[in-house]
Amino acid sequence: IMRNFNSITLLLFCCFSSTKVHQDPPSILESPENPVKFSCNHSVSSYETMLWYQKLNGGSALKLIGYIVYTNPTYEGEFQKHFTLSGDGSSKSELQVLKLNTEDSAVYYCLHCDSNAAEAYFGGGTKLTVLDRQITPPKVKIFRPSPKECKNQKEEQRKKTLVCVASDFYPDHVTVSWKLNGEDVSTGVATDSAATPVDKSYRITSRLKISATLWENQDNSFVCIVSFFDGDTTIYRNDTLDVKGLFFRKLILVLV
């Protein structure tokens, strides 16, 4: 007898890593009416059950689609006519959406466990977007810090914030990263948890907080890089802010 996996696996979501479960692919863009398939495999053959969940965009709840024990699938009522489970719960399972519509846009997760759900492992998830408009890569712009920021603070507390805005892209399959003088930067980075819908496109913002001393060093060059999945490959858009150029232009204005 299967337990209530809707409640049990929500508790397990933060407790077990996905290192033993491989889910593929990580991202899919597809047109309405077409079918799509996700796959999931694992390395613990003593676990005979594979479950599949849907997490709608903007939501936090996981909805159980169904599960397969060995080769026997079981579906939740609302998903039975629209989804198909196949494979073997003890090794590999596939979830197929038979005929896509825009409401199917979501992140899909597989979960591998034994029949008692005593221990379980999630896959990394597959983000699916069912397209309803033309794919458009992002425009990227870095905005320099405000001259008023940290103006009255003590020297050791002075910080400056660079803001990178990626806009006018669709769909929202993006990640943002920073480089300083060609080296990856992670300290001081705060990026929106998700892209924000704006009209018929998306926008995402990332902030890089640095010491004022670092900002005032004219040898420094900052780059904001946005990776965008267009359905076939990942493309990159970036913007560069050279401190030396900014101070040089400022000097010209003062002299004029």
From TrEMBL:
Gene3D superfamilies in UniProt: Immunoglobulins
Source organism, top-level taxon: Eukaryota
Alphabetical UniProt keywords: Disulfide bond, Immunoglobulin domain, Signal
Extent of the signal sequence: 1-23
Domain Ig-like: 138-242
SUPFAM superfamilies found in the cross-reference section: Immunoglobulin
Protein name: Ig-like domain-containing protein
